[in-house]
TrEMBL record:
Pfam families: Cons_hypoth698
Keyword field: Cell membrane, Membrane, Transmembrane, Transmembrane helix
Listed transmembrane segments: 9-29, 41-60, 72-91, 97-116, 128-149, 155-177, 189-209, 246-271, 283-300, 312-334
Lineage: Bacteria, Pseudomonadati, Pseudomonadota, Alphaproteobacteria, Hyphomicrobiales
Protein name: Putative integral membrane protein (TIGR00698 family)
Length: 337
């Protein structure tokens, strides 16, 4: 990057980092007080960024750095996320588990998107809500957004309500364990199928037991693994049309960060990434994602975000209900094998 370009982005990146540090401090305090995180730093980052923009406004000098942080840093985070997933981890769970998770995610995407469109949401917003609900919450939303060309308001709106519903699920889900007499394995599978973010899976399963944590995390990682194929399908859908009588090249159809995601996963599977480096990559991915969330919040105005809030919230609730029903069906299939 040229020196002039670096100077141009530094102010916006700096503000994004400051918001990130504040969000992490709040999340740390929350965990110290309650013993776990109801809302992770990602959610606090976008909320703080949005509040800042809504109250103070975003100076023109910050725009370049904010745009850089919300796009490139996020793509780098997705690449690093691939280091936390091994092909062996998926294979060891069995083909039936993989098939059930795959079917659940794909059916949830179709049902959630259909619900959103029936409620009058735009194509972009419906796609983001469906991805967030079906795959991995905030990460899926922000990964899909640049591929489909969604604007900041759609991204922030879908994240806001996905985050709110994710918190509600974490609070209510442990009640199901005692209310329905579930085993730790059953509860772990259901939690992994329905909870949005990995930290929230840990928060929802930790009170139940170690077995639930392990099963829930494994199922959740399988859903995260669907992020790459789904983003690729979205790229094909939105960019795979003919241009000038010829098909677009593969390098334009496949985002570089998706290639990087799979490359890191393969390196992890081959044992070429040391365990210490895996932990570092996971931490770096979380940090970069939080910075990008802060930048995303800095790009939106709260009044605009909540302009279509009622419909988005209803779409999210109905999509979550559909995902929960699919989770129950998937659990019954796995038990019957």
């Amino acid at each position: 990057m040229r020196r002039s370009g670096l100077v141009e982005i530094l102010p916006g990146v700096g503000v994004s980092v400051i918001v990130t540090l504040m969000s992490q401090a709040i999340a740390f305090t929350e965990k110290a007080v309650f013993g776990y995180e109801l809302m992770d730093a990602l959610v606090f980052a976008i909320l703080l960024g949005t509040i800042y923009h809504s109250v103070v406004g975003l100076a023109p000098s910050l725009r370049a750095g904010v745009d850089f942080s919300s796009k490139l840093l996020l793509e780098m985070a997705i690449v690093l996320l691939g280091a936390s997933i091994s092909v062996r981890t998926v294979v060891d769970a069995g083909t039936m588990m993989v098939a059930v998770v795959f079917a659940t995610v794909m059916l949830s995407l179709v049902i959630s998107y259909s619900i959103c469109r029936l409620l009058g949401l735009t194509d972009h917003l419906a796609t983001l809500v469906a991805c967030g609900n079906s795959i991995c919450g905030n990460s899926a939303i922000v990964a899909a957004a640049p591929v489909i060309g969604a604007d900041f308001d759609d991204v922030a709106s879908s994240i806001a309500f996905t985050a709110a519903l994710g918190i509600l699920v974490v609070l209510l889900l442990p009640w199901l364990f005692s209310a329905f007499g579930m085993t730790q394995w059953q509860y772990g599978v259901f939690a992994g199928m329905t909870v949005y973010a990995v930290p929230q899976v840990l928060a929802a399963t930790a009170p139940i037991g170690a077995a639930s944590v392990q099963v829930g995390t494994l199922v959740k990682l399988m859903r995260v693994l669907m992020l790459g194929p789904v983003v690729l399908l979205l790229r094909l859908k939105n960019g795979g049309q003919r241009t000038g009588g010829a098909w677009l090249s593969a390098t334009r159809l496949i985002p570089w960060f998706i290639i990087g995601f799979f490359a890191m996963m393969c390196l992890r599977s081959l044992g070429l990434i040391p365990p210490g480096a895996v932990d570092t990559a996971k931490s770096a991915s979380t940090l970069l994602t939080t910075v990008s969330m802060a930048a995303l919040g800095l790009s939106v105005n709260m009044r605009t975000v909540f302009a279509s809030g009622g419909r988005v919230l209803l779409a999210g609730i109905l999509s979550l209900a559909a995902l929960s029903l699919l989770g129950v069906v998937g659990l019954l299939i796995l038990q019957a094998r």
